């Protein structure tokens, strides 16, 4: 069962910025939908 959960999270698509479409480097405590570049604007 645990292997299925790990595989699920490994196979999730990359998170992308809603404004520019760039890939977001996710951190466990971050729920932002914008990349750092767009957050600075």
TrEMBL record:
InterPro entries: YhfH-like. It comes from the Bacteria. Pfam families: YhfH. This is YhfH-like protein. The lineage of its organism: Bacteria, Bacillati, Bacillota, Bacilli, Bacillales.
């Amino acid at each position: 069962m645990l292997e299925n959960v790990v595989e699920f999270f490994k196979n999730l698509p990359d998170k992308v910025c809603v404004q520019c479409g760039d890939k977001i480097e996710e951190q466990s405590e971050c729920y932002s939908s914008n990349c750092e570049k767009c957050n600075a604007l």
